[in-house]
Each structure stands twice: as structure tokens, then as C-alpha cells.
Design brief:
With about 210 residues, the chain is of the alpha/beta class. It has two domains: about 110 residues, 3-Layer(aba) Sandwich (Rossmann fold); about 90 residues, Arc Repressor Mutant, subunit A (Orthogonal Bundle). It contains seven helices and eleven strands. The protein has a five-stranded parallel sheet with strand order 2-1-3-4-5.
């Protein structure tokens, strides 16, 4: 399945890409309506920006608001220093190089996105199995990663039984101290290294982050 890129550029720029899209290793959709920008970018893998549109402050604000997706800025003139982007591509460029640069960037961005998670002011590195904050880090287990990710993504307290079922695949009527033990050990590591006693919070109806 091809990656889909949203093209956000001037009329001439959009037309030039439209003419060559059948030779590309990704699909293109074109956009020039700022009021629909958020909905359009949510359905794509990357934003392909014509540098000329960055001269408009409204466009620049939209581009800088995009998170967790690679932004490819096609640079034809000067470097727009106020534009946050992942990769600059200089035109003119050989078509095969254009394909390779964009495909590799999306693959790299997706790998990084899937291997790390921002939780409050912390970062989880799933490859290194570490929890980091500023210059400090601790080693955490695979189950601890799953526990943190689940509690953070749910945005509401989860009961002991719910955690047992979703992480350890226990039945609803299982009676075990697995959850308490893992949370105790994780809290102890976090308190020792980061001096944070409120990373995981107890509620009457369960645990939350």
C-alpha cells in the first residue's frame, strides 16, 4: 500500500506534481483550503510543502502546527527559518532521488513514532526499554512499558481486573497481586531516580497516569 502525501502549495507547484504523480512511489492529494487543513492532514502520512506558501503567516502557522508527521519542504528560493520541517528538498531534483528521499523519510519517521512515547514530561524508548526525563533515565521492562502506555492512553482510571485482562490476559475472576507488584516496583524506580511520587495515581476505581 502506497503512502499518501498531502501537497500544500501554490497552483503552479501543485500542477507540476500532478503531472508527474504517476511516476511516484506514493500517492498525492492536493489541498489549498486552510479551513479544512486539519481534517486533510489527519488522513495522510506526510505533508509536502511548497516553500513559497510559507511566506504567508497563516500558512506558516498551519504548517508549524502539524505534529507526529514528517513535513517535507520543497526549497526553491531562500530558507524560511521560521518554518518547522523535517527535510528540505532542493529543486530541481532527479525523479528517482525525489522518490527515494520521501519514501525513506516516511519510513524513518514511522519507525521513530512507533518506538517512542511521550508521557507527561517523560519519554519512553521502546527499543532501549528506558524511561527518560531530561538527562536522567531508568531501565523498564516490557510489561512496565505496556502498563504505562495503557494507563496513559486510556485517560481514565483502570481497575486491577481490567489491567490483568488487557496486559496479562488473566480472566476477570483472577485473584493475584501481579498488578500491585508491578506498580510498586515501577513507582519505586521512578521515585528513586526522578523523585516523582505521583507518576501513577491511585483512585477508588483503579490506577491512572
Amino acid at each position: 500500500m502506497k503512502n499518501n502525501l498531502l501537497v500544500f502549495g501554490t497552483k503552479n507547484f501543485n500542477n507540476s506534481l500532478f503531472e508527474i504523480q504517476k511516476y511516484l512511489d506514493f500517492s498525492l492529494s492536493f489541498h489549498n483550503d486552510a479551513t479544512l487543513f486539519d481534517d486533510a492532514i489527519s488522513a495522510t502520512d506526510a505533508l509536502l510543502v511548497d516553500s513559497d506558501v510559507c511566506a504567508d503567516s497563516k500558512n506558516l502557522s498551519l504548517i508549524n502546527s502539524v505534529n507526529n508527521k514528517p513535513i517535507l519542504l520543497i526549497e526553491k528560493k531562500e530558507l524560511f527559518k521560521n518554518c518547522n520541517y523535517t527535510k528540505k528538498i532542493i529543486f530541481p531534483i532527479i525523479l528517482s532521488d525525489f522518490n527515494t528521499k520521501i519514501v525513506n523519510l516516511i519510513i524513518t519517521a514511522k519507525f521513530i513514532q512507533n518506538s517512542s512515547l511521550e508521557v507527561k514530561e517523560y519519554t519512553i524508548d521502546k527499543n532501549e526499554k528506558t524511561l527518560k526525563k531530561n538527562h536522567l533515565s531508568i531501565i523498564i521492562t516490557e510489561k512496565e512499558i505496556q502498563l504505562i502506555e495503557l494507563l496513559f492512553n486510556e485517560k481514565k482510571p483502570l481497575s486491577k481486573k481490567s489491567l490483568l485482562k488487557k496486559i496479562w490476559k488473566y480472566s476477570e475472576d483472577a485473584d493475584t497481586h501481579t498488578v500491585e507488584t508491578h506498580i510498586y516496583r515501577l513507582r519505586k524506580k521512578i521515585l528513586s531516580k526522578f523523585k516523582d511520587a505521583n507518576f501513577i495515581i491511585n483512585f477508588k476505581n483503579g490506577y491512572s497516569i
